[in-house]
Amino acid sequence: MDAETLRTRLEADESTALARLGSQQFLRALAGGDPRPEPLLNAAAESEHAARETFTQWVDDESNSEARAVFESVVEQEDDHRERVSDELDEWDPDDGGPGPMHAYLRARESTFQRIAGGLVGRPLVTLQTHARLIDFFDVRQGPVAARRANLFEDLRGETAAVLDEGLALLEEQCASDADWERARMVAGYVIRVAGDDAADAFSAQGIDPASIDE
Q1: CA distances in angstroms from 84 to 49, 68, 188, listed in the order given
Q2: Which residues, including other chains, have CB under 8 Å from residue 87's CB and lie 6 or more apart?
Q3: CA separation for the pair 94, 133 (Å, rounded)
Q4: Which fold would CATH assign to domain 3-209?
Q5: Which element (helix H / strand E) includes 30?
Q6: What digits encode the pLDDT tens for the residues 4-62?
Q7: Of 2, 26, 78, 140, which has fewest CB within 10 angstroms of its CB?
Q8: How far apart are CA 152 and CA 142, in angstroms?
Q9: Predicted structure pTM score
Q10: CB-based burial, 59-98: b 16+ in 10 Å, e otherwise
């Protein structure tokens, strides 16, 4: 296996979870009801904040200098993302209620290998889906504000794709055998499934049957 094959396998194996995260219903779940700009932007800012906090924790105790440097760059990127999204809101403060399931899992990873596979591969694949849905949401609306917000999430999505590329490149260095690649697939895949299951729970809370999206 190699990096390109890993990504292809993940997108195929975790297609159900990724489809949930890229569905129209996901916006309803994200907003806690009818999709409106303010709750969607708030949820997006919270997501960028959670990622910033996860990578900040990893920087503090990461022993691999190359991985730590990448984690530091992601902290800076996520801090920038958080600020750019929150600037679209009249007022925003981070929710101190703790991380959601995906970031709770990621923050419990202690090995460099799992952090790369989970945080730099699995997590970006999740985020690419959610950014795509937000781009669509703002893209169909009229006016300069909606256009600016669509462009914002286009930019964020492109920068997140670059993080995924970095993660895959690091795995090329870390994986010496097919068994290593399989371990990477398992960790990254689990991260995606956790996010997909969290979305399914949110669908159910809104009276949406997750099975209707999985079909």
Answers
A1: 11, 24, 27
A2: none
A3: 22
A4: Heme Oxygenase; Chain A (1.20.910)
A5: helix 24-31
A6: 999 999 999 999 999 999 888 888 888 887 889 999 999 999 999 999 999 999 999 99
A7: 140
A8: 15
A9: 0.93
A10: beebebeebbebbeebbebbbebbebbbebeeebeeeeee
